[in-house]
Amino acid sequence: MKDENKPINDVIDHFNKIEGNAAKLAKTNFKKLPKALKYFGYFIFLFLSISIVLLIIFNLLK
């Protein structure tokens, strides 16, 4: 099996080093995030979902 973290060519490798992209850290474990950050993400997702539903309802009632 091919290593997924290995760059395709030297240009990509150089770009990753210059930009600071950590290819080996691409897999993030979201369960280890701080609780405050998780709850903030849940709040944003819930707020956007409710906003979209309300916009649809108000446009249908108009």
Automatic annotation (TrEMBL):
Enumerate the UniProt keywords alphabetically: Membrane, Transmembrane, Transmembrane helix
Q: Transmembrane helix as a keyword?
A: yes
Membrane-spanning intervals of the chain: 39-61
This one is known as Amino acid transporter
What organism does the UniProt record list as the source? Neobacillus bataviensis
